[in-house]
Amino acid sequence: MLSGKVLLITGAGQGIGRATALAAAQAGAAVVVNDIDADAAQSVVDEIRQSGGRAVAEVTAIGVNGAAEACVGRAVEAFGRLDALFSNAGVLRDSVLWKTEDDAFDLVLSTHLRGTFQCGRAAARQFKAQGGGGSLILAASPAGQLGNFGQGAYAAAKAGIVGMMRSWTLELARDRVTVNAIVPTALTRMTATIPALAPHVAAMERGEPLPAQLRARHGIGTAADIAPLVVFLASDAARGVSGQCIGIGGDRLSLWSHPAEIRTDLHAQGWTPEALAAQWESFSDGAVQRVGVPLDFD
Fold first, then answer.
1. In what residue span(s) does the Ketoreductase domain sit (predicted)?
2. Residue 196 maps to which CATH number?
3. What is the pLDDT of residues 35-56, one digit of tens each?
4. 83 lies in which domain range?
5. In a domain, 152, yes or no
6. Catalytic site residue from 135, 154, 235, 242
7. pLDDT of 196
8. Has 3 been annotated as catalytic?
9. What is the chain's Cα-based Rg?
10. 3-class DSSP state for residue 233?
11. Catalytic residue among 87, 158, 235, 242
12. Which of these is catalytic: 135, 141, 235, 242?
């Protein structure tokens, strides 16, 4: 499905990134494996090569100036071009608002949001220079869609990524570059820090099958369950898919809506605080939106 294509994956030393790198190589792509951990990146490269695939490593911290250009440059140097980017690198520093330190907030935003911006920009410049289009695949999150307790920085970064996706879809359409965000839900090192999921992560690591309800109702599976969507979006079969926020996890595929007004009302000469107070209950009845990622997985 990806024969002849070159795919750059950031944060590919483990978890979703690693699973996607292996799946992309199996589908015929040459893969640039980026990670901050040199041993992890090289391990993925070795595994791909041992299976007859093509891969190189680029060890750098995403979000640092020059890292994105180094990753794209590595793709061009090793394989002559770049066809798709999966911007996946991430970090967590979960903390409630009043306990969040500036350094932790900055690290999360730098890695996720700034890193995605820089990688997207470097890839877009390469796509435009070589012609023929390309694919930007950006990692979003349920936290960015709904919010999550203790994840203000992470939710802000992921919501920002979806916002950039929508703008980039418009900006790159003329160059035949598709831009999509995926909302993955999988048991990984990052989700192991969520108390409600920790027992399932432990069970998975023991080799036990995941409950059917977790995979179907909640759409939570393994990292390998995420990879097929990235492979599809990087392929020619998805050339008509752009500007979408697509969820995948376990057995479940979903399409997220874009924000839109769900109800409107008018008040002649503008609204006053008193008019808002009098109207709010009837105006908002049945329309107030829920917040928070559901965490009841029993």
1. 5-193
2. 3.40.50.720
3. 999 999 999 999 999 999 999 9
4. 6-255
5. yes
6. 154
7. 74
8. no
9. 20
10. helix
11. 158
12. 141
